[in-house]
Design a protein that fits this description.
By secondary structure, the protein is α/β, with parallel strands linked by helices. It is 40% helix and 15% strand. The chain has an eight-stranded mixed β-sheet with strand order 1-2-4-3-5-6-7-8, with helices on both faces. α1 (43-51) crosses α12 (254-272), α2 packs across α3 and α5 runs antiparallel to α7 (171-180). The chain is globular.
């Protein structure tokens, strides 16, 4: 569907189901994509969540995919855009789910706008999220080489050779195709946003809702060894790990992502009905070495 957000067209996917948040028994999920991506990065996950009865929003961020307006030039600006999207969709609060750059947006959004956030799920995250000089330097001048490098580093070698949805679908090609259709200049802006966002741990300390940290064991873009400081900063953090999976977990292991989010939803619902926050008890702590 299309919404008007801050005066610009915003294309939003709903997982293949009509947008009826009042009929959903669980909080709506707002799925926020990563750098040089769009809402189609969530295609399989959004469909699976919708099939399970969830109310799902997967927008193209401003200047990405089919959404209008300029790409926003900071994580803070993207976080402050989220309430306008929720207003346009007619919902007060949502479970903010972000992947990679989107995880920084979700984290900052939960810290800056706690009244609009019922829960937080950070997928493939790292705080801070430094970007290699090689990628930053070539993002504007040779974006396709960066798209190919990001695709290679976001997926396990086995998935790169054999992965996909069957019947001729090649998983790595899906990732690459989404990035290649990004408007000109978006990649450089997004990577700079990730690299320049340096106060994520301070934002995490202000988050008051239940938080899921979903990591992939073979993630080379945001390795799980980076997570302990973030987990310590979050008041209500739960750590879950997907085995034999790379950074692009929604492509490589979509069902594992769906299952983790569905298991997390009851905690979000329970927190909304009690005044006392849950304790910070992870399912398992991330490795420290």
């Amino acid at each position: 569907m299309e919404l008007s957000v801050a005066g610009y067209r915003c294309r939003v996917a709903t997982g293949g189901r009509p947008w009826r948040p009042a009929e959903s028994p669980s909080p709506p999920l707002l799925l926020i994509h990563g750098a040089a991506n769009d809402g189609d990065a969530w295609l399989q996950v959004a469909a699976g969540l919708a099939a399970a009865g969830c109310c799902v929003l997967a927008p193209d961020l401003p200047g990405h995919g089919l959404s209008g307006g300029p790409p926003l030039a900071s994580i803070e600006a993207l976080a402050d855009w989220l309430p306008a999207l929720l207003d346009a969709a007619g919902i007060d609060r949502a479970l903010l789910v972000g992947h990679s750059m989107g995880s920084l947006v979700a984290l900052e959004g939960a810290a800056r706008h706690p009244q609009r956030c019922s829960g937080l799920a950070l997928l493939g995250t790292s705080v801070p999220m430094p970007v290699a000089d090689t990628l930053l330097g070539r993002a504007a001048s040779a974006p396709d080489s960066v798209y190919r490098m990001m695709t290679e580093y976001s997926l396990t070698p086995r998935f790169q050779l054999y992965g996909g949805g069957g019947h001729g679908i090649w998983g790595p090609g899906v990732n690459l195709a989404i990035m290649r259709r990004s408007p000109r200049g978006v990649l450089a802006i997004d990577l700079a946003n990730c690299n320049d966002h340096l106060h994520g741990l301070a934002a995490a300390a202000r988050v008051s809702c239940p938080t899921l940290l979903l990591a992939a064991r073979r993630d080379r873009m945001t390795p799980r060894r980076n997570l302990p400081p973030l987990q310590a900063a979050l008041p209500q953090a739960r750590y879950v790990e997907i085995a034999d999976c790379g950074h692009a977990m929604m492509t490589e292991q979509p069902q594992a992502v769906i299952d983790a989010l569905l298991r997390f939803l009851p905690l979000v619902a329970a927190a909304a009905t009690t005044a006392s926050p849950a304790a910070n008890v992870p399912e398992r702590s991330p490795p420290r070495g």
